[in-house]
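Standup notes
- HV: blocked on the assembly model, inputs below
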Amino acid sequence: MNTMKKTETTNLVVESFNTDFERRLNFETLGKNLLNCAELHANKRGFGVDDIIKRNHAWVMARLSIEIFDMPYMFDEYSITTWVEKVYRMFTNRNFSISSTLNGQRPTVIGYARSVWAIIDKETRESIDLENEYGDSLKSYADNELDCPIQPFIRLKSSVNGQQSTTVEMVHKVVASDIDYNGHVNSMKYITYLCDLFSLEYYKTHKLKRVDIAYVSEAYFGDTLTLSREQTDENQYRIEVKNQKNEIIARGMMVFK
Amino acid sequence: MNTMKKTETTNLVVESFNTDFERRLNFETLGKNLLNCAELHANKRGFGVDDIIKRNHAWVMARLSIEIFDMPYMFDEYSITTWVEKVYRMFTNRNFSISSTLNGQRPTVIGYARSVWAIIDKETRESIDLENEYGDSLKSYADNELDCPIQPFIRLKSSVNGQQSTTVEMVHKVVASDIDYNGHVNSMKYITYLCDLFSLEYYKTHKLKRVDIAYVSEAYFGDTLTLSREQTDENQYRIEVKNQKNEIIARGMMVFK
């Protein structure tokens, strides 16, 4: 019997050096704070990064979707709550709610996020059987009655009968600061790559409402990443990140309002 | 009479998504946390960003020097303490100490930082007279008895009789995520630019011990920055950041061990 509750909550404040040109929390920081909260949740319950490394395992994020209705401003207080939704054989779903806790008032939900994770063997890089190896502990905390009323990961097809109507919008050579402790590009860096496909002018009239990223393959120091963007609807873009071998590294979707 | 103490301390933990490939806190996050602590100090004492904006003023950092002896690891606890050292007519010096607070033990100093600030009029972009306009409040908190035993800002001359022996090492086009609420490149981004002049291989055998940055001019969205690096000693480099008009934006110095 576990005695901890199923959710973990972190209380945060929007620090000025993590805001954008309009004094709003930037997406990369929000993403990092979601993952930090997830890590805290997992650590306290015995399946954190330092617990699973004992079996030479590592968490790998496969999908992330963040939807935000009202991004908090500089010095605003907000909180992140996370919980495990479901556990499958190869994947587990982890959800998040983001709330404004301005002036100590009753929290108001300002966004949600969904993520899909696998655990890999660090040697073989293969996914391990989650149910077999961690099913008991993960499932004892899973809760699918908690509400996460945003669409699951949105998979966007190329718009024109599979023909490529995309253009290369950005080339990024992977630098040392992109690399995390897993030896590959920090998953939150992709949020910034995607955000930086749009100009400051564009952001003056459009607010990013939702971002989806599918992590397909890993990128390493020195890789040359090319980002292609395709507009699929008035305020909607599909993005593809490829490496120098033309392998797909990540796929993204961005919705503005 | 002010009743607040002269120093402000923030307690922090190294979050996993703010670490480098060796699980150590990255320099950009450390720099941001120094500034967040400075902001907290200033806000609580009546000369924060939201106080001085009432006179249409803004804080501008002119110099930053960070020296770290032992960068904390993932999940380590640490604290930052800041205080105003001196107030001059056009500048004020703010210092920092960084301490490890691992396992609730007595804090051990692991680094120091020094910074030099001006306040500008947001309209004219000219520095204002600090002593006249904010001298009373700033000086009442100034303390130059607190120890900050690192060299002040190191000004490096070009090594070869003023001849340029530097080579352009990196070209960076300023993107939306680089821009802060002042409308220019976030001062902490320069730390990352500098750090990214070195390869992952280099960092495997060299640890960044000290970084100095002089903020000479502002960079804006769409600017093309070129970074030149010149080795001035075995483990010491001088860096120059210029924009597309060949204007110097920043000068840096990095010391490795």
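- HV (later): unblocked. The first helix of chain A runs from residue 27 to 44. Chain A has five helices and ten strands.
- Next: hand off to the docking folks.
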